[in-house]
Request: fold
Amino acid sequence: MRYYSKLLLLSFLLISFSQIKSQSIKVENLKSKIDSIASSVIKDFRVSYFKYSFANSNASSVIKGATDNKVLFDKLKIFLSNKKIDFSQFELLPSKKLNGKIYGLVNLSVINIRSKPKHSAELVSQALLGMPLKVLDEKNNWYLIQTPDKYIGWTDASAIQLLSKEEIVQWRKSTRIIFKNIYGFVFENPDLTSPHVSDVVMGDVFQKIGRQSDFYKVKFPDGRSGFIPENHCAYFKKWFGGRVFNVAELLNRAQQFVGVPYLWGGTSVKGFDCSGFTKTVYYMSGLILPRDASQQVNTGVEVDTSNNFKKLQPGDLLFFGRKATNTKPEKVVHVALYLGGLKYIHASGKVKINSLDKKSPIFNEYRFRTFLHARRIISSVNKNGVQELLKNKFYSGEKDETK
Reply:
């Protein structure tokens, strides 16, 4: 009798295991199909959001998650309804829980943008005070945001001020100033000896609400106010729209950053990674580039470097990484800004200048061996991934950027 009881128990366990394994295979097959659909729609998951999970690991009756891509949302809805999967807990962003506050402005001199909604997560990018944002979702006092270069990540609630559509329109119409020095402070009074309201870095943008002595009175997105020395600032639209693009100015600004430390994910004067450096230099000249080196390499136009770099021009971007082989594809991992005379400036350990000239004392053999491409940015304004800041939808509002 005991023998038959054990046999029955073993049979039950085997059947249960078989059922669980079958359910697991079913879920994995379903996930594989969902991932395939997503990859066919979203070509770069750094600039579009998609996360999902099933209600439990052994049943695929309910899918939870979200995406900001309406095409993907519609495709998944059709596919999963045919599979009898409950789609009601999968959301098209911006989330309804935001109650219409689907825009934002950066509220601190520099904010950190992370891969997950927690301070210990990877730093993937940064954003500057006064930068307009798309707000997609909220989780545990963290916000999923998208910056004007379309990069997506999480930042904590203290970093941004949420706005309605009407409020962001008013901000776009307001008189704004941009801080043009490398670093400084906002003061409580129009006096350099008065207490600080905040620090401020190059590229920060404020609303101008007055002028007193040689100071502008400015307003932060959260309503705080203070004073900035007038000669440290410029009018936003005049700075970005009233000048002819100047390569010499671009190069001079880049060299102002020599010695700034390297910071993975950094896009501000508090710390740069390689692409954050090139992006910021071009941003201050009124052009928006994609966030990462592997994205920037697809912008502008290719420059022929087969003849000893003779066709390079100052302002070109130089890209480095792993060359393609029969078994591995090319991989771009680093970017620099060409200065002329075979010299280039880049963020590697710190912002510094190196040379492609083997006879130069600042020649970098490793970079020379891993050189891949050069791209010309200034000949591709408003095409090939290069956009004037004032024509960017986040700043201009020409079309509702939440769509």
Notes: Residues 247-390 form a domain with the endopeptidase fold (from Nostoc punctiforme) fold (CATH 3.90.1720.10). The first strand starts at residue 50 and ends at 56.
